[in-house]
Amino acid sequence: MLLRLIGFHLRETLTMRTLVFFAAVLLVTVFLFSAMPDLVSTGDRISYNLSLSIVDPDFSLISEALALLMGNMNGMGQVYREDLETAQARLKNNEILMIVQMPEGFYETSLTLQKRPPVTLWLNPRMPAETAIFVRALRSFADSIAGIQAAYVSFAEVVRPLYQDIDAFNKELTDTFSQLAIWALARRGVLTTDETARMSTPYHVIASLVCLLCMQTGLLLMTQAQDERASGVIYRMALSRAPWWASPLSRQLAGLLWVGVSFAPLIVGLKIYYPQARLELILPAVFCLYWVTSSLCQAAGYLSGGGMLALPGVWMGILVLLLLGGCIYPQTLLPAVLKPLMPLSPAYFAYGTVYAGLQGAAVPGGALPAFFVMAGFSALLLRVAWIQGLHKSHPGVLS
Amino acid sequence: MTRESARGAQRTRRDSENPAADPKAGEAPRLFADQNRSGLVVQNLCKSYGREGVLRGVSFTLSPGNALGVCGSNGAGKTTLIHLLASILTPDSGTITLFGVPAGRSRAYREKIGFVPQEIALSPRLTVRQNLDFWASMNGLSGKARETAVEEAISLTNIGNFLHKRVSRCSGGMARRANLAAGLVGSPSLILLDEPTAGIDEDNRDAILLSVQSLQKAGRMVIMVNHYRLELESICGSIITLKDGQLMDNGQPALQAQ
């Protein structure tokens, strides 16, 4: 009976929609691998041309330290030290991410106990997410400088009685501060960047696309579940000898075939470009993500019936899951408020596993138990939705 | 079915078996003379959605070889009644038995039910024949038994001339007749028709009504929901009217009238 149902759903899903989906997947795959040489050559970079300008009228030690640190950051392009006018022209031309403008005498003031004048940041509104990470880095830098300054002031107060000559004292302090700063920089102690967040652009793009295409397949099944409810086939299924789960399960299995067909070119491409990729991790990750998403989409289909807003609604839901999974923006760029929610998305674990599989690494911890929990939850939701779909078909319309 | 034969069927209706004529209040109104022969017995059926009572104490019986029409305005509870009879819904109280088998999810009950929803519950991408084969398989039939069941459904609905047409290419009337045939696969004892003639032309409507008559002759019980009383009168031995979830007779609840 299950085989017959799978055959039924294969024929049901072999529609123009499915063919368009295949064509889109094929197009994206071809595009991906045609761009692959460029992606590979750029290596470990978050994206291209993330540059910034530092405007320091004094060309002080602090701006030098900042330029050195930022220049060493992962994914950073050029760090310009220039005047404000030139920097603003660059910002306007979208050449740089931001301008760090230090006020005149910033360094001198930093050597005293006086309150430092604020540093002005000119941000590029066209790259808000990328800017956010650098703003965080700058805050960290400022905290480090404040720490050094506090140590410096404490040191100055302690050693002041040892000096009769104030000029000699000031010179000694300046030298000490410079040494301290250089020592901190040499040990990368001023600003530490999260090395684990280093990201490979090609891996990110492939892992994100795999998740996106896999989850999109769920939409095909959703429309089928909608049709089953709207056409009354759900009644006949309920009254037949087939158990309730036979129809959704066989539809999922039929959809799995389409996932296999659409992913075949991608897998072939991966074998060519990434021989180290562990397909034994990537394929189960695709399967798990598809399984959970297709259950959720079918549940949405049974609940919504023929509602016009169902398709865009579920599509938005998939986008949210992709966002939480780090497939739209890298996980490190997501706001802190979203980070606790990330493990709720099946895409989070699938993305991590596909990414690790591309690197040839092991499965991230917790992925397998998370899949079982999510698969169980989605099956439960599907059951509830199926009952709702059966009992609430066209309420009030047919009476 | 010609209009004359449909009217003939109307003339055979036994008015004396009106539910309101049952002398014993509280018992299921007998729509047909011999309750011992009743295949379907519905007693004091109640169903509500939240606080809204959709059916309130509906009772009737139906014997093999008879057709019962159910009419009423929108929201009267017709579809809820037919869904309860199909065991798609569970009643809040009251009982339904079919040849002594209580309604429920049991195979013994459900295999006796042939449900024909108002929508065309068929795959538009398959031919009519493929659809019938598929639903016969879903009813657990295979091989020769499946073939026999499908042939019987085809014969009862007289759809042999468009069997190999895709449902998507069938006219509305053809699709409705195919939909009816799919509900008959497996020789069910009780056939539940939810507005089977909605939105189709006169010829196809007559063909469906003729099929209903053939089903009666074959000893099946038919319950047909329809908005139009005249159409029900042309084919059904008895008609019940639902209003606000109760059986009505001359504008009064039938049970109260007893």
What features would you highlight for this structure?
heterodimer, A: 399 residues, mainly alpha, B: 258 residues, alpha/beta, 9 helices, 11 strands, globular, disordered N terminus, disordered C terminus
Report on this structure.
The complex is a heterodimer of chains A (399) and B (258). Chain A has 399 residues and is mainly α. In chain A, 66% of the residues lie in helices and 4% in strands. Chain A contains 15 helices and four strands. Chain A has helices at residues 2-13, 16-34, 36-42, 61-72, 84-92, 106-110, 128-159, 166-186, 201-230, 233-239, 246-273, 279-304, 310-324, 346-359, 367-391; strands at residues 52-55, 79-81, 98-101, 120-123. Chain A has a four-stranded mixed beta sheet with strand order 2-1-3-4, sandwiched between helices. By secondary structure, chain B is α/β, with parallel strands linked by helices. In chain B, 33% of the residues lie in helices and 24% in strands. Chain B has helices spanning 3-11, 78-85, 107-110, 128-138, 143-157, 172-184, 202-217, 229-233, 254-257, and strands at 40-49, 52-62, 67-72, 93-98, 101-102, 113-116, 190-194, 221-225, 238-243, 246-249, 252-253. In chain B, strand 10 (246-249) and strand 11 form a beta hairpin. In chain B, helix 6 (172-184) runs parallel beside helix 7 (202-217). The A-B interface holds A 1, 4-5, 8, 11-12, 14-15, 230-233, 235-242, 390-391, 395-396, 398-399 and B 49, 54, 72, 74-80, 86-89, 107, 110-111, 113, 115, 117-123, 125-126, 134-135, 137-140, 182-183, 194-195.
